[in-house]
Amino acid sequence: MSADLHTLTGAYAAHALSDTERLAFERHLDACPACAQEVRELTETAARLGGAVAAPPPPDLWDRVRGEALVTRQLAPVVGRADRRRRAGLHAGGRRFPPLLAAAAALLVAVLSVTALNLGLLGRSDRSERTADLVAAVLAAPDARRVAATPGGTGRATVVVSRGRGQAVFVASGLPPAPAARTYQLWVVGRSGPRPAGLVEVAGGGRVTRLLDGPVTGDEQVAMTVERRGGAARPTSEPVVVVDL
Amino acid sequence: MALTWTRREPARRPAGAPAARPAGDEALEGLLALVARGDEQAFAELYQRVAPAVFGLVSKVVRNPAQSEEVAQEVFVELWRTASRFDPARGTARSWIMTCAHRRAVDRVRSAESAARRDDLAGRRDQGRPYDEVVEQVETSLEREHVRRGLEALTDLQREAVVLAYYGGYTHREIAELLGVPPGTVKTRLRDGLIRLRDHLGVDA
Q1: Comparing B158 with A160, which gets the higher pLDDT?
Q2: How far apart are alpha carbons A194 and A196 in whole angstroms?
Q3: What would the DSSP string read from start to end of A179-218?
C-alpha cells in the first residue's frame, strides 16, 4: 500500500485523485516527508503550467470580486505561525528597502505577468515600430532566457536575453519616477567594466520595457543606476538593480 | 549593493537549470500577508497581478465562459477569506493561489456535469488532442514557450497524462479510460511527467 502511495505525488499535485484517494494520500503525506517535499515541488510545477495559459479576465470581474469580498468575513490566522512567517522574512508591512536613494527606497520592481508584458509593449507609443519589433524578436527567440534580479538588493527586475541574437530586454514595473533632473540608466557590466546600455523612460504604472543598446553575450551583468539627466559615460552611483545574466 | 563594476567570475547555476520561478513572487507573499489583515488595496494589487493567470487557468479547465467567471470570482473571494492560512514555509504564494484556482475549477467540472462529462469523454476521443490547443495558445510569451518546450520534452504518454489531468481536469481513472491504459500507468506517467517538467522549468521548492 505504502509503496503504491509514493507514486501518487503527481496525480495529487494535478488534482487527479478521487476524493477518497486524496484523503488517503493526505494521511500518508503527514507521515512521509519525502512525498511531502515532492508534492511541494510538483505543485509548484503545476502552477507554472497554469501560468502558461494566462488570459485577460473580463473587465467587470474585479468589481464583482470586490463586492463579494467586502461582505465576506476573513478567517483568523492559525495561532503560532507568525514566528515562522517572520523567519521566512515577511513583514506584515511588506519588504523594507534601505533608504539609500530616494528612488531606490521606493523601488519595487516586479516582473510583469506575461499579459502585462504584452500590454506594456503594445502601449509604448513613443517607441518606434522597429524597436518594438526588435523587443518582440528577443522575447520570442528560441533561446530566450528570463533572469530575475539578484534577490536581496534594493529592487527587482527582469532581463530577457537571447544569446543567439546577442540582445537583451530589460523589463520592470512599479518603478517610481526618477528624481528631478535625474534619469535611470542601464549598464552592461562585462569583464572590462560597465558600458552604457541606454536611458530608461518610465511609462505609466512605472513600466519599463527597454531593448539594451549594444550587443549582449549573456555572460554579463545588467545594472541600473540613477544618473543626471542625459546619462553618464560611467556610472556615478550604486546600482538600484543588478541582474546576473 | 555590492557590485564592483567589473563582471565577477560567473557563478553558474547548476547545469541545465534555467532561470528559477517567475520573479515577483516575494512581492505576492508580502501582498498576501497584507490581504490577511483586511487590506483592500493589497487585495486589488494581488488581483491585478494574478487575475490573468487565475482566469486563464480556470477558463482552460471549465471552458464555459460564464461558469469560468463564476469560478474565478469564487477563487478570489476564497483567497480573500483564507489569506491568513497561507504559509510561506509550505510553498510560494503563486503556487498556493494557482492550486486554489485549479482545485476550484476541477471541483466545478466534476460536480456539475458527471453525465455530460461522460459524453464529453467519449466525444474527445475523436477530437484533436487537448495538447494541440495548448500549443495553439502558445505564441508570444516566454513562460508559455518555456512550458511548451517542457511539455514537448515529455514522452507522449507523460504529456497526455499531464495535459489531460491539469488542463482537462480529469481524474487519473478517467485518463486511463481515455488513453486505454491501466490507471497505475497513468499515476506513474503523471509523476514522471511532472518531475521532468520540474527539472526543465528549474522549479525549486
Answers
A1: B158
A2: 7
A3: PTTEEEEEEEEETTEEEEEEEE--BGGGBEEEEPSS---S
| pLDDT tens column, A118-149 | 344 434 344 455 666 677 777 777 777 877 77
**Which one of A44, A73, A241 would you mutate to disrupt binding with B, by most B Cβ within 10 Å of its Cβ?**
A44
> In angstroms, what separates the C-alpha of B152 from chain A's closest C-alpha?
13
Q: ∠ CA B133-B138-B144 to the nearest 5 degrees? A: 125
Mean pLDDT over all residues of chain A?
75
Residues from chain A that touch B203, judged by Cβ atoms under 8 A, are: 41, 44-45, 48
Secondary structure percentages of chain A, helix, strand, coil, to 5: 35, 20, 45
Between chains, do B54 and A146 touch, taking CB under 8 Å as contact? Answer: no
Helices (H), A123-186: 129-140
Q: Are residues A201 and A130 in the same domain?
A: yes
- Based on the number of CB atoms within 10 Å of its own CB, is B160 exposed (0-12), middle (13-18) or buried (19 or more)? buried
DSSP letter, residue A177: P
A154 shares its domain with A43: no
State the best of B4, B26, B146 to mutate against chain A, taking most chain A CBs within 10 Å.
B26
Residue of A nearest to B197 (CA): A45
Domains of chain B, CATH where assigned: 22-112 (1.10.1740.10), 114-200 (1.10.10.10)
pTM for the whole structure: 0.58
Q: Which of A112-116, A211-215, B159-163 has the highest mean pLDDT?
A: B159-163
Please answer yes or no on whether B191 and A42 come within 8 Å at the CB atom. yes
Q: In this complex, which of B37, B87, B172 lies closest to A16 when CB atoms are compared? A: B172
**Contact list, B21 vs chain A (CB under 8 Å):** 44, 48
Q: Is the ipTM above a cut-off of 0.85?
A: no
Range of the domain at A30: 2-51
pLDDT band with cut points at 50, 70 and 90 for residue A214: confident
Residue ranges of chain B whose pLDDT lies below 50: 1-2, 8-23, 115, 125-140
The number of beta carbons lying within 10 Å of the beta carbon of residue A34 is 10
CB B160 within 8 A of CB B125: no
Task: Give the three-state DSSP class for A145.
Answer: strand
Cell numbers of A150, please? 539578484
- The minimal CB distance from B205 to the residues A44, A65, A76 is found for A44
